[in-house]
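Key result, reporting period 2: structure in, sequence out.
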C-alpha cells in the first residue's frame, strides 16, 4: 500500500512541475504590498487580494469587507511590464467568506522576425486572470 501512495505522490509532483510554467502570470502576485515583501502574503492577515493569494485568511479576518486595486511596474529595468490588480472579499458570517480578484499583465513590445532576422512586425503580449475564492473556518483561530 505504501508503494501505491509513493507512486501516486511522485506522479502528482511530476504533473505539477511539468505544467508549472504554462501560465507564468499566475506566479506573479496582484497585491503590490505582498510583492514588495517578496511575494509572501501567507504570513499576513487577510487583505482585499486574499482570494488570489491566501483565501484561508478571509474567514479569519476581523474585517467584514475589503476592496482594493493596485498598480505595479514589473521588472522596470528589463521587461518594462505593468500589472493592474483588483481584489475584494466579503465575510458572510463568522465562519464563511467569499472573494474575487484578478490581474492584467502587459509586457513590452516584442518584435517578430523572419528566418533571416528581418523584423516583420511587432506585438504587445498581455495576460489577464480572474479568480474566486471561498473560505470556511472549521475551528476558532
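The corresponding designed sequence is given below.
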Amino acid at each position: 500500500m505504501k508503494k501505491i501512495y509513493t507512486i501516486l505522490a511522485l506522479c502528482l509532483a511530476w504533473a505539477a512541475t511539468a505544467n508549472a510554467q504554462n501560465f507564468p502570470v499566475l506566479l506573479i502576485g496582484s497585491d503590490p504590498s505582498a510583492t514588495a515583501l517578496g511575494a509572501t502574503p501567507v504570513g499576513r492577515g487577510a487583505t482585499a487580494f486574499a482570494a488570489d493569494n491566501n483565501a484561508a485568511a478571509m474567514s479569519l479576518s476581523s474585517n467584514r469587507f475589503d476592496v482594493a486595486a493596485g498598480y505595479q511596474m514589473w521588472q522596470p529595468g528589463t521587461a518594462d511590464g505593468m500589472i493592474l490588480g483588483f481584489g475584494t472579499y466579503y465575510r458572510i458570517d463568522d465562519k464563511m467568506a467569499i472573494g474575487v480578484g484578478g490581474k492584467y499583465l502587459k509586457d513590452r513590445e516584442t518584435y517578430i522576425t523572419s528566418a533571416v532576422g528581418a523584423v516583420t512586425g511587432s506585438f504587445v503580449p498581455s495576460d489577464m486572470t480572474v479568480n474566486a475564492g471561498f473560505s470556511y473556518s472549521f475551528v476558532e483561530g
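The helical segments are 2-18, 32-36, 50-53. The CA atoms of residues 3 and 16 lie 20 Å apart. This case is discussed further under Risks and Mitigation.
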